[in-house]
Amino acid sequence: xxYTPVSKIGERPLISLISNIFRxxxxxxxxxxxxxxxxxxxxxxxxxxxxxTDMLHRMTDFPWQMSPWQIGWMSAxxxxxxxAAMGARPLGVLAAIGLPIDTDVAFxxxxxxxxxxxxxxxxTAIIGGDIDTHDELTICGTALGTxxxxxxxxxxxxxxxxxxxxxxxxxxxGAALYALENDINAPDSVLKALLEPTPRxxxxxxxxxxxxxxxxxxxxxxxxxxxxxxSKSSEVGFRLQEKMLPLQPEVEELMSFNRENxxxxxxYTGGDFELIFTVRPEGIEDVLKLGNISMxxxxxxxxxxxxIQKSDGTxxxxxxxxxxxxxxxxxx
Amino acid sequence: xxYTPVSKIGERPLISLISNIFRxxxxxxxxxxxxxxxxxxxxxxxxxxxxxTDMLHRMTDFPWQMSPWQIGWMSAxxxxxxxAAMGARPLGVLAAIGLPIDTDVAFxxxxxxxxxxxxxxxxTAIIGGDIDTHDELTICGTALGTxxxxxxxxxxxxxxxxxxxxxxxxxxxGAALYALENDINAPDSVLKALLEPTPRxxxxxxxxxxxxxxxxxxxxxxxxxxxxxxSKSSEVGFRLQEKMLPLQPEVEELMSFNRENxxxxxxYTGGDFELIFTVRPEGIEDVLKLGNISMxxxxxxxxxxxxIQKSDGTxxxxxxxxxxxxxxxxxx
Lengths: 332, 332
Hints:
The structure is a homodimer.
Chain A: H1 6-9, H2 11-21, E1 29-31, E2 39-42, E3 47-57, H3 58-61, H4 68-85, E4 89-99, H5 105-121, E5 126-133, E6 138-148, E7 163-167, H6 172-181, H7 188-195, H8 201-210, E8 213-218, H9 223-234, E9 237-241, H10 249-254, H11 259-268, E10 275-279, H12 284-289, E11 293-300, E12 306-309, E13 315-317
Parallel strand pairs in A: 4-5, 9-12
Antiparallel strand pairs in A: 1-2, 2-3, 3-6, 4-6, 7-10, 7-11, 8-10, 9-11, 12-13
Helix pairs in contact in A: 4-5, 4-8, 6-7
């Protein structure tokens, strides 16, 4: 057989190949390895157990400006964000930590404190783990949660006519990374989105309990990639309104020299760990009342694809690009 | 504060430091990060959820002779072994896989098939995961299981007078590694212990349901280290009988030039993924009837420490050494 390096085929096609090997599931596993943020297990009469795992590395996931406490916070936060994406309440977090042998013990302890503080912020804890040595600092987190069965949210369920919403600001983490990489002085409020992301656990539980949300996921790979994922699972298209994208005022200021870039950033950069979700039209008013939520467009027929209307009325196709771990062309 | 690299303090002291940071647990977490193989969560009336995570690396955990299928098998097996250690039934396995970018896609698929086949062997499945790129092949597995509350087994519970038992052979994986490292021709039956370890799920569930077992863990770090861990949790000592250590006949043959080394191997090498457990005296007969189980000694008072009686009657102290990930002096 011909040699094909994984770098040639792209992250999502590789995930498809591997998920296919794992496709057979025993009874009681509602959703397995594949498109959603968590696996879903039917563990008792009234609620599902959801579980997710994410591996982070020094080189690709932790900007050099991150403190060890922030590295720990981030490692818990990305996993809790996946729990939030299903509408679930966190039950616990596990952490497998691979440390270079020259790591200062105090640095390792700060990582642990960051993880603990993030878990505690969301009324949960680090309940287990593994420590060993590794060439590169590597942290693999696992988070568990529970959700009442009727409140489980997945990427499947969006209907034509539903409204599309996001929590928080769009592209804030991308702007922070841009500032760090280009030595631009950015305020803490911008840097925080990248260095101390906020998993939307509380918002997610409220949204799930209201019953108006039809599909949900987090925006860790960017809004554009998330829309493509929702589109595939729900078999729908999307029409966004550019002017409705929630931009952080400090980011607008930071990027004022290039507003075109600003909107690209909002659509195509990842790392925000906000929620993107679809809402039945009759529920949108109640949902927006929760605060810190913006309506950015609506669900359309799948054949209309994914597009964005600019302020001048022109409509552009949203490209299938964003933050992918393998950082290579995706040819699906 | 003075710089202390993690390589200086040893794996178990580092785990103690980090576990201490994670010591506060919310309600419903019965056992958290710390001495046991799994965290234990009170998830419903009749049973506990147990969960464990382990990170494995190309350089330290996968001998070069391992096939990609065996790498996958091993990654699932080590986590299932931790589930077994608690007496639990597997519920599912998650796998976060970090692949070097030049990994052949076919190699990655074989890893996935190995994981799937191991999970399937124990009536479970790979239910979720994460894939990204990494300098060194890194696989972080997470396994979940459930156990009826009254059947949960931990490292705490051994009493003076209990019998000490192990499943399978002692030191088989160590002998295989010795053969590989010294270019000695070893039969497949020996190599398999190292390259395709068998998590003792079925034995563990039977043992847990019988009610005679008072404490249990797996022997992945070697019998000696496991006894020290059981000793610390249960506050007891142990007296082993050297002649009762279950040696694989092929290993005896392989090491026939050096029988002294053979017993060291059985005590101090890891990688076996057998179970070590203590049994109430009145239950020992029933337990041994299960087969593939050997009684190797008994529980004594803690002040008697951990010792082994040799065939000639002399008694030696069992040293606190074995396979530790950090492979450095442990000074607790």
